[in-house]
Amino acid sequence: MSVCALRLIGQYYEAACRVTPHFQGAGRGFAAQFVPSLHAVIAMDLDRFDLAILERYQRDTQLPARAIGDAVGLSAAAVQRRLKRLREEGVIERECAVLAPRALGMGVTCIVAVDLDREGNADLERFRRDMARRIEVQQCYYVTGHADFVLIVLAPDMATYDAFTREALMADANVRSFTTQVVLERVKVGLDVPVASAKTA
Q: Most buried by CB count within 10 Å: which residue of 7, 145, 151, 155?
């Protein structure tokens, strides 16, 4: 199954949730069972050369194609072709710089669990949009368990974080409650995917 086909399946599910109410309640169970299988199918489209390239490229996107090719046994041109395909298929989602929060005065990192009152599709989508617009929110996850969403929030100080909670959470009538954990130490932070665990085609 191609990546395009997987995207169509995802779009169908989202449309079904909007149109058919009973899909909504099954959403989280559906995700728990279906998303891992999607990941497995996507991994089946990748061979050992793709994985070897990705393992190196995700850690340093400025690594020359020739250096990657020498390490994995391909020409520089072959590496470039594969990287182009991996971008087009959405395996490589984005290439960006990783900044040090403290160097920019962002000394406070908070992990925030948010519980919503109403969990209809429109309510969930509105909260997603609101969090996506907030520059303080570095990451936002829709999760299983007692909370509905988990946020990673950056701020220069606790006063600024408090202002964020008042504007983004307390002012939202659909936020039933939220809890905050203040990070004492960033032991490990990253977006590296364990490529070595992926299955090859």
A: 151
